[in-house]
What we know:
Layout lengths: L2 H9 L30 H12 L2 H11 L5 H29 L3 H47 L1 H4 L13 H13 L12 H25 L16 H24 L2 H4 L9 H30 L6 H11 L3 H37 L6 H11 L12 H29 L7 H4 L1
Helix pairs in contact: 2-8, 2-11, 3-11, 3-15, 4-9, 4-11, 4-15, 5-7, 5-12, 5-13, 5-15, 8-11, 8-13, 9-15, 12-13, 13-14
Amino acid sequence: MSTIAKALKFLEVSPGEGVEKVTYLRNKDVIPMGPKRRTWGVWSLTFYWSITNVTISSWTGASSLLSLGLSVGETIGIILIGNVIISALALLNAAPGGYFHIGYTISQRVVFGIRGSSIGIIIRIILSVVWFGSQAYLGSLCLSCVFASWSHSYLTMKNTIPESVHMNTQQLVGFVIFQLISLPPLLLKPERFNKILMVSCSLTFFAMLGMTIWAVARNGGNGGPLMHASSKMSSSTRGWYWIYGISSWYGSLSAGVSNQSDFTRFSKKTWSSLYGTIFSLVVVGTIVPLMGLVSASAFQARYGLDIWQPNQLIMFWLERDYSATSRAAAFFAGTIFTMSQICFNTMGNGYAGGMDLSGLLPRYFNITRGSIVTALLSWVVQPWDFYNTSSTFVTVMSSFSVFMSPIVGIIIADFWIVRKKTLEIVQLVL
């Protein structure tokens, strides 16, 4: 046996329970989930989608739509319609996981064949890497708030990085450390991560609610001027902006919609995801952007500053008043948001990338290995460039749907209409 062959043999993953031998088509993380790994109930799947909607991206996402010249009412209307569409597509695409306990990679084999499935899987891997880096950068901003609450020197740290980089020294330190502390959670099995999601979602939602109440209270109980501003544009322009806004909002979550079965395969019952998906997307997914709009509007009216991101608000507390009270508030809020970003990144991007790599190269990748590789590759994405302006972020979000929407549509049509919920799974994992 040659040296290369020995090295490849050494790198092969262990078979694990339910798999006699690892092949180029299967390992323990690719085959249908056995009863022991089906640990997710209604609440677990509710918090799975909730963690997506209690993030900085969801809080600030409405600002991108508002920058188009739409009113707050129109912006929330677009978000609500977008979330209804997302929830419907997510539920339809979740069915293969609920019925047969198979993930996205097997669904791709059903639709495109063994070799053709690689295209859709590779696209998903690329998106997972990009999104991991993007959310890691946002998480690093929250972690910087925690460090700033500990040390005034960190708060006032001198920047030694050129302005063309769109990142300062303080943010670089936060980004490196955030990426490092994001690695240990990836070692946990996805089916055991649900309880952590429950804690993080609950804490983050109430932290967001508290920040909104604080901003409105500071403004004398008034939501601010943005809440009453009207849009001034022609009906034709408004109509196109609505279409663009709905498409952009869907595009921001299209990657998550595409791999729904990756997580519903861990469900105890076929439709455990039904009520949780609807509630998390339609209710939580609309309330959180609304809170972001209200707090930003009230803050602008009170202090004359445009602050959209929670981490910016936390830094404002520290820069305005570095007292023990402000530092304590900044520490707890920063910690909660950091935890939220880690949980969302782990579940939505780390595990997702790991599952896709596991399906693409089952001999050499399980979910854990793939998740670590996804995290390491995300360092080269330079995610700080995604957040220079709101318009840039909208463009990035909308571009994702160009790749994923056709794949989602094909999976749904194939499963529900062509095959009528009938699959021969054995032929896909031999």
